[in-house]
Amino acid sequence: MSTMSLSPPISRTSEAQESVTRRLFWLSIGVFFIGGFLSASVGLLVPQLKSVLALDYKSALLIQLAFHSSYLLFALPAALSVVRIGYMRAIAAGLTVMAAGCLALVLAQGMRQFLLVLGALLLLSAGQTVLQIAANTVVTVIGPSRRSAFRLNLLQGFNSLGTVLGPLVSAPFLLADIAPGARVEVTASIPFIAIGAGLATLATFYIAHRALLADAPSAAGDYLPRDWTRQIFAVLGERRLLWGACAIFLYVGAEVTIGTLMTNVLMLPNRLALEPVSAGRLVSLYWAGAMIGRFAGAWLMTWIAEARLLVYAALAAIMLTVAAALLPGAAGAGALIAVGLCNAIMYPTIYALAMPRDSSKAPLASMWLCMAVVGGAIVPLLTGMAADAIGLLPALLLPAACYVGIALFAALCVRGGEAAS
């Protein structure tokens, strides 16, 4: 039996490729939007359950540990499933698992069982792991490579739109009348019931379009090589991929930490002293900054090199996060909210810069990048431990340090680009 190649020897006309790229883009909008809506809504479970179950910060942030640790646990089988069954079927499978996770979360909320909530979040994020690898990678490799960062930033703008609407819509349900020992009302599950229905609908659309990429180059699917175990580690020979994975670890950790703890920060007497629902809704401004920045970033990338723009964004994020920890009142609160604008281009730009030039390596490379999302589990937990020990505001210096690492990765890419030119 001959060894199968990672790149199927099939080509299409330029016109047909453009048609596939356009249809794929429109399908992807729903995936990116609902992913953002879900992530922002899950973040509101932290202040909800912290209050209702009287948890400390470390315990409450186990929610983000459960939601993001699956990226480490399931990234390998997710990547292999993408290679084996193809991008479209993998996305449909991921959406279906996420819908089941939403149902499990609704049941766990009603039972007020913290361990069941964590288990439901793990199931939910298992499906999201498949989605991250398949959806981000297919947008990067299907279509002109020189426009990959632009396409991904534009779609991440719709992801940010979901994160903006998530707190606005979900906060009145999740954060209303929360108090130690309070009963979780059925209405608190409405956001996750709606998200589950949306995920099931999207899965149906992807199943209906499962043959869309059948003839596309680099479409992945049914060509798993014999030596895939060697290739999993061999792909780490790509220097940018290795450092890019570290940068994504730091970025997701910082973004999730700030977005999750912002409600509690805004409730502090020496910041805005808001009540829970108002503070939760105001978090939408943080995600709105990311949304505006991603659309603006996609435009700026037509004028400024992606790596250089990433340097500027990381440096601004460092200054704003430090300011949020030090400045009192509205100034500190405003600085923390403004970090969202700096976050805007980070994930899609790091992802695109880190991907190998050889598109046949994309599924396995994306596995490592997706595993790095576990930063969203580890950095918030470490920050929660720091908040319990030294206070919530000084603990913000930990995500500030994460942005330093991102700035170093961006500078490395700038130097690499200048050396290649």
Which short descriptors sum up this protein?
421 residues; 18 helices; disordered N terminus
Topology of helices and strands:
Blueprint: H1 14-43, H2 45-52, H3 57-60, H4 62-85, H5 87-111, H6 114-141, H7 148-174, H8 190-208, H9 228-234, H10 239-266, H11 276-300, H12 306-326, H13 329-343, H14 346-354, H15 362-371, H16 375-390, H17 392-395, H18 397-420
Notes on the structure:
The protein is mainly alpha-helical. It has one domain: MFS general substrate transporter like domains (Growth Hormone, Chain: A, Up-down Bundle). The protein is built from 18 helices and no strands. The chain has helices at 14-43, 45-52, 57-60, 62-85, 87-111, 114-141, 148-174, 190-208, 228-234, 239-266, 276-300, 306-326, 329-343, 346-354, 362-371, 375-390, 392-395, 397-420. Helix 1 packs parallel to helix 7 and helix 5 runs antiparallel to helix 6 (114-141). Residues 1-12 have low confidence and may be disordered.
Q: What helical percentage do the residues reach? A: over 70%
Structural class: mainly alpha
Shape annotation: globular
Average pLDDT for all residues: 82
Please identify which CATH superfamily we are dealing with.
MFS general substrate transporter like domains
Low-confidence stretches: 1-12
The CA-CA distance between the termini, in Å, is 43 Å
According to DSSP, the number of beta strands is 0
The number of distinct structural domains comes to 1
The sequence of SSEs as H and E is HHHHHHHHHHHHHHHHHH
